[in-house]
Amino acid sequence: MKAVWCVLLLCTVYLLLWPLPIEPVAWQAPVNVGFEGKFAQNTRLSELTLVDMGTDYGPEDFALNQNGTVATSSHSGAILLKKKGEGTFSPWVNTGGRPLGIEYDNKGNLLVADAHLGLLKINTAGEVSVLVDEVNKTPVVYADDVDIAQNGNIYFTDATTKFPAMDNGGTLSASLLEIFEHKGNGRLIEYNPDTGNSVILMDKLVFANGVTVSHDEQSILVNETGKYRVLRYWLVGPNKGQVDILIDNLPGFPDNISRADNGSYYIGLASPRSAPVDILSDKPFIRKIVQRLPGFMRPQGKPYGHLVKISEIGEIEESWQDPTGAFPFVTGAIKTKDGLYVSSLTAQNVGLLR
Fold first, then answer.
1. For the CA atoms of the chain, what is the radius of gyration?
2. Closest CA to 159 of 233, 231, 215, 211
3. Is 352 left (phi over 0), alpha (psi -120 to 50) or beta?
4. What is the side-by-side order of every strand in the sheet holding 219-224?
5. By the 8 A CB rule, do 112 and 105 touch?
6. Average pLDDT of the chain, as a whole number
7. What are phi and psi of 46, to 5 degrees?
8. Distance (Å, rounded) from C-alpha 12 to C-alpha 10?
9. Stretch 338-347: mean pLDDT, rounded?
10. Coil/strand/helix, residue 285
């Protein structure tokens, strides 16, 4: 019996006192309305055609160049290309890190937000160079997504300055640490390729994720994954430097955001919201205890496919879902002449809605 009590005592001490990488803070999660109204559950995403990407997986993002070539980033570190008329994606260049967001510039270079290496450029010859790996003498820890304005300025997110993906079990595990802590270590960065200068436009974001330049180039839209919302940072005009909430209280964790037709935007909801995460939002001490539990006992993302389309003023226009999670952890989409390519954190193939 004494041995049992000793084990219980050790377990209690561990759950209460064992050092942690996170320092949770209290916040108040908005009430989750779930899959109701314009988010009503459907199976529209189950109509996906799967496009082969060989032995690779995790097509996180897409970019489309002037020749009709579609690029995607992958879990292995490779950038894969599907040229016009081809039926599959083939490896092109490996960054040696974990490429996430990608975007072509007007010279055919591919800009890459690499979670391990920072903001990269891959020229048309396939040569990789680092553009930004630190800002204001602080390292870029987790470059996540990137977009380019018509004037050449590049905007990218550093999802968290505290939890490097390479040191915390990968991009998904590191994102969970940032979201569960909820202190806000993410930021939006503007890089001027002409001067080589980088400026922090926004900080204290709870996992700064997808980013896109608005259709009118007046603002930058940023997905704040940990708060289930999309923010708008004004670049010009009377609201310059201010931040508005474009859409709030989403039923899932927003990942990438990209421009669609007619002033709209595609947003991938990587996973539905977690009831334990919301319930424990104002209980940081209990979140510490939960973080000390074995991984399988902590809140995890649910494999549920969900892509939405919103208007310029944040109204829901479309919602594609796959409740079975056959195409899980959707990150975003891009429209091409082939149809709508759909990306994912973990899928074995690229999705295509024709």
1. 20
2. 211
3. beta
4. 208-213, 219-224, 229-234, 243-247
5. no
6. 95
7. -75, -5
8. 5
9. 96
10. helix
DSSP assignment, residue 354?
Answer: -
Closest CA to 171 of 74, 81, 273: 74
Question: pLDDT for 101-125, tens place per residue?
Answer: 999 999 999 999 999 999 999 999 9
**Contact present, 298 and 265 (Cβ < 8 Å):** no
277: helix, coil or strand? helix
Q: Which amino acid is at 92?
A: W
Q: In what order do the strands lie in the sheet with 118-122?
A: 99-104, 110-114, 118-122, 128-132
CA triple 101-131-229, angle to 5 deg: 35
The full DSSP string for 158-198 is: E--SS--GGGTTSHHHHHHHHHHH-S--EEEEEEETTTTEE
Q: Is 9 exposed, middle or buried (0-12, 13-18, 19+ CB in 10 A)?
A: exposed
Sign of CA dihedral 327, 269, 209, 70: positive
- How confident is the model over 249-279, as pLDDT tens digits? 999 999 999 999 999 999 999 999 999 999 9
What percent of the chain shows pLDDT beyond 90? Answer: 91
